[in-house]
């Protein structure tokens, strides 16, 4: 059967408030069966794609899939990041705590275009650990008169490098998407108490007093958690998800259980 014929078997349905679910129409399919140009077109329209009902990819197949869209970001650990709770974590993303909203590659020179996640082991219902995605273009579309002020804001972020990222950077709050020229939000969430013990992130609005900076950051963060701009993904075994890192932010809710078995692999496509 050709790739085009397999593509015709797919079942498509919208996610809320954004994104698209792509469900396999028969057993034995993998995401490698879907033409790259088709996936790219979907991503341009939806920003986030969830594939369900597909067989898992071995690591070499996973890398092969990513390289159909571009080079993969090579980190200190390699191309594939293993996302699971560790007994002695160096970074809070490997704990059961919350991970703040952010965009991947903030602390490196080359920013990923797409983040690709493959879930080997999901979570039980009610266990927490949802991955949170924010459509920043939707958030900007509802900003109203505040948008003009946001365009003048720059933020400094500082975190000690204890794992594969860290340092000090400065970024405008509103930036241009390098792939389509549309405005997007580039923001790392402040005030994450779950990271304080290991490696807290210091966030400061430039040219604001400390009090004004904290007030703005709390109010701005609350806007990103609104139901009309945030998709909350509860992982199931075998889920395969692609997110546009250039227009979305993502983070994670804390787990509600001490026994966390969730295991996800992630690659970044440049």
Can you walk me through this structure?
This protein has 6 helices and 16 strands. The protein has 270 residues and is of the alpha+beta class. The protein has a 7-stranded mixed sheet with strand order 1-2-3-14-6-16-4, with helices on one face. The chain has a 4-stranded antiparallel sheet with strand order 5-15-7-13. Strands 9-8-12 form a 3-stranded antiparallel sheet. A hairpin with a 6-residue loop joins strand 10 (174-176) and strand 11 (183-185). Mean pLDDT is 93; it is low at 1-5.
What is the gist of this entry?
This protein is of the alpha+beta class. The protein has six helices and 16 strands.
Task: Annotate the secondary structure layout.
Elements: H1 3-8, E1 11-14, E2 20-23, H2 36-46, E3 48-52, H3 59-67, E4 81-83, E5 99-102, E6 114-121, E7 131-135, H4 136-141, H5 146-150, E8 154-159, E9 167-172, E10 174-176, E11 183-185, E12 202-205, H6 210-224, E13 230-233, E14 240-244, E15 248-252, E16 263-269
Parallel strand pairs: 2-3
Antiparallel strand pairs: 1-2, 3-14, 4-16, 5-15, 6-14, 6-16, 7-13, 7-15, 8-9, 8-12, 10-11
**Runs with pLDDT <50, length 5+?**
1-5
Percentage of residues assigned to helices:
10-25%
> Main beta sheet, described?
7 strands, mixed
| pLDDT averaged over residues | 93
Distance between the ends: 31 Å
Described by the principal axes of the CA atoms, the overall outline is globular
Question: How large a portion of the residues is in β-strands, by DSSP E?
Answer: 25-35%
Instruction: Decide which structural class fits the backbone.
Output: alpha+beta
Order of strands across the biggest sheet? 1-2-3-14-6-16-4
Separate helix tally: 6
Number-wise, the strands total 16
Q: Please give the radius of gyration in angstroms.
A: 19 Å
Q: What are the secondary-structure elements, in order, as H or E?
A: HEEHEHEEEEHHEEEEEHEEEE
